[in-house]
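Dear colleagues,

For the upcoming journal club I promised to circulate an example of a predicted protein-ligand complex. I picked one with glycine because it came up in last month's discussion. The inputs are reproduced below in full, followed by the predicted structure.
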Amino acid sequence: MKVLVIGNGGREHALAWKLLQSPQIEQVVCVPGNGGTASMERCQNLPLAVDDFEGMSQYALENNISLVVVGPEVPLAMGITDYLQSQGLMVFGPVRAGAQIEASKAWAKALMQEAGIPTAKAAVFTEAAAAKSYVKAQGAPIVVKADGLAAGKGVIVAETVEQANSAIESIFQGQFGSAGNFVVVEECLIGQEVSVLALTDGLTIRPLLPAQDHKRIGEGDIGENTGGMGAYAPTPIATPELMARVQTEVLERAIAGLKSRGIDYRGVLYAGLMIAPDGDVKVLEFNCRFGDPETQVILPLLATPLEELMLACVQQRLGEMPPIAWKQGAAATVVAASGGYPGTYEKGKVITGIQAAETAQVTVFHAGTKLNSQQQIVTDGGRVLNVTGIGDNFQQAIAQAYTGIKSIQFDGMYYRKDIGHRVLS
Ligand code: AMP
Ligand code: GLY
């Protein structure tokens, strides 16, 4: 098989890497890919924009691509799956109507309420005055969300009524463009966040190993929100009892809700959950794709060939597959970021030590990197590398990731030193 992987993050490098471990996979082509996917054997980059659906389709048809795997939410929300399917291609990733579960928080909230999925109490607004009077009545802390896709920046956890009001103002004033046509105001939940990514063919839904991300830039989970500074799996807070509840109360209800809206959803459904101190589970959000950096810790532990699972989803025969098999042990990833991220940062810094970092227990997934004209790997984004360690337990996996990252250097490199603090303490 030849597979086309769409995207250029650490997630896509991990997807390409995992696919290439299977003897069934001859070649992976990444659109547009990064320095990591450009450097792997049997992998190459194709410099097209992720919204160039016609260009991708033409390439895929001319080059006998058997499967297209879509990484990011933006092309899914734009209907890449609908388009490529109409050209006769097999695509892993939901159709545009299904991607609304991530692309519109108001739509997702309505689906959750109708399907009986536990979630924070919320209201949707189309103008600031009504939103503010709701905030005044509810009090702080409270969460304000732009409805649409905002590259992970559209959620404001407001500690005060004033903060909530100013978030409402800026969203309606166009801070996130049309993503802010609606504002969702919701109850602030407390607890630990868990990411449950599940594979579905529209009928059957099966969870992958539960993971925990580290959203904040600073050690001790303080400071600004980021795309994710590190992750680990399988998180022990998601006990078998909790996962059984997630299966019936979240995942199966979501699939039923999508089906009742006439949506045949095939791909990844990612439930972002809040686990309260008393063990109660509520959905914070759904995503229509693999998580980043969760994928970089889940895939190293996957024993079933990934393409078999993906094809079973696309061909609607996931229910006939044996249970998903996993390797024993744990995985942890630490993100190396450019100095200044998630604010402004410089690009083009030469990265050294990647090969020295890689061992049987350590894999370096590239995110914001590229090959420069001298064939050097240089930084090309905020989150630059994900150094993933595996081991028999969390202590070992985390230690491996940190041993690996210590051999890597680039000007301004920053990483959190406390990834996995919850499972270590
Ligand atoms: P999202 O962009 O929807 O993934 O949300 C970003 C982050 O905002 C989540 O990972 C949570 O940390 C936080 N968040 C979202 N909704 C809530 C909520 N109702 N209560 C507390 N935190 C929330
Ligand atoms: N790790 C968070 C996300 O992928 O949305």
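Two points we might discuss: The pocket of glycine (ligand 2) is lined by residues 213, 228, 287, 291-292, 294 (CB under 6 Å). DSSP finds 15 helices and 22 strands in the chain.

See you all on Thursday,
B. R.
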